[in-house]
């Protein structure tokens, strides 16, 4: 496994208590607000799927589908999904998924949020590089989105 192509890692320091960051992350409706997916009335439960329409302009025709893997209150949330699965005419269900893990760590003046998405080396070669590139840029944006969301709540 080549870690430079198999995983995306990001981290951000958010100047808010861990409980507040956890609420933005683990409450599905709040997650959807900053992430750009309609999750009204949804919950993140380990072992269960969660889905909602994407609300990001130009992608509203897509459904965001994940299977929640772990929920450890105020510490860790993880899910599996098909990265950059944006062609509505393609059945991605037979492809491997990547694992997205958010970890929270309390700091003296806030919370360190770490994000790792791993498993890209298992994605079919014909779409692996594009999925990695698009998700890499997407996570840069999403780290800013959660920071702004927590700052305004």
TrEMBL record:
Signal peptide residue numbers: none
SUPFAM superfamilies: Bet v1-like
Domain Activator of Hsp90 ATPase homologue 1/2-like C-terminal: 15-150
Domain of life: Bacteria
CDD domains: SRPBCC_CalC_Aha1-like_5
Protein family (similarity comment): Belongs to the AHA1 family.
Name of protein: Activator of Hsp90 ATPase homologue 1/2-like C-terminal domain-containing protein
Species annotation: Dyella acidisoli
């Amino acid at each position: 496994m080549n870690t430079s192509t198999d995983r995306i890692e990001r981290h951000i320091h958010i100047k808010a208590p861990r409980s507040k960051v956890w609420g933005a992350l683990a409450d599905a409706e709040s997650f959807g607000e900053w992430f750009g997916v309609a999750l009204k009335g949804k919950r993140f439960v380990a072992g269960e799927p969660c889905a909602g329409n994407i609300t990001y302009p130009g992608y509203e025709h897509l459904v965001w589908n994940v299977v929640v893997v772990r929920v450890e209150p105020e510490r860790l949330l993880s899910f599996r999904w098909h990265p950059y699965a944006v062609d509505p005419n393609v059945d991605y269900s037979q492809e491997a998924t990547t694992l997205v893990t958010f970890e929270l760590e309390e700091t003296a003046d806030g919370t360190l949020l770490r994000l790792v998405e791993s498993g890209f080396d298992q994605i079919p070669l014909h779409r692996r590089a594009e999925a990695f590139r698009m998700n890499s840029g997407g996570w840069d944006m999403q780290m800013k989105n959660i920071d702004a969301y927590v700052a305004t709540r």
